[in-house]
Amino acid sequence: MLRCLHRVVPGVASTAVAAAARCTSHPHLLLQQRGVFADKVRAGMVLRVDKKVFRVVANTRSQKGQNAASFNIKLTEVGTARKKEVTAGQGHDFSEVRAERIRLLFSGFDDDDFACFVFPEHSPDAGKEINIPADSLPEVQQKFLACGMPTDVLHIIPDEDVQDDKEVWTEITMPSSYVYTVEKLTLKGLYKMASFVECDGTVSVNDQIQLGDKVKLVIKPDGTVSFGGRASA
């Protein structure tokens, strides 16, 4: 696991909270209910299947006879991305997990290699901290999360009816682009590489970029990051 250099220090969390102006004033982006029949299952829902939590990728209907139908539901396990498919009749009742997407601010990695996030200033839980093991994050997040960055985090709410069910924070979604400050420039073959004050990642930049410049990096869903040009003032 990558040892990240931008650590939490006293005052960093409060600094991140102060950056809440960049975040939505409505942190709760999604709240799901429980109990859904197979024919009502839709992509994006979070279900509990065989005591595990899955996100629905797709639900396709296959006709069986004159009045009967079955549904093939494609799932991805939350937190592991393992795939699963189930077939169910129209009247099969799935348990929909109580889940919500919440806007949090990244505040750094601590000495125990936990990624720390805080609720923004205008939320009811302003300043409350959530800790997620850094080694459970994709490499792009370990390298390019920056203090004060707004992130969407999936919150799985424990089910009181399920024994030993636990609260889970997972599936962090970073902004599609973010502004960083160039701290160091090096050469890697024919490429000019920049490292940044706010994170531990490096990216190839053009020859016009100098130390201290503010540059935009594009953070792609495929886990790669690319140079997006000098940031406008």
Automatic annotation (TrEMBL):
Q: Domain Translation elongation factor KOW-like, which positions?
A: 40-87
> What does UniProt give as GO cellular component?
cytoplasm
| Coiled-coil stretches noted in the UniProt entry, renumbered to this chain | none
Q: Which domain of life is it from?
A: Eukaryota
Which InterPro entries did the record assign? Transl_elong_fac_P/YeiP (IPR020599), Transl_elong_KOW-like (IPR013185), Translation_prot_SH3-like_sf (IPR008991)
| Record GO terms (molecular function) | translation elongation factor activity
Q: What PANTHER family does its record include?
A: ELONGATION FACTOR P, TRANSLATION ELONGATION FACTOR KOW-LIKE DOMAIN-CONTAINING PROTEIN
Q: What is this protein called?
A: Translation elongation factor KOW-like domain-containing protein
User: The organism's lineage?
Assistant: Eukaryota, Discoba, Euglenozoa, Kinetoplastea, Metakinetoplastina
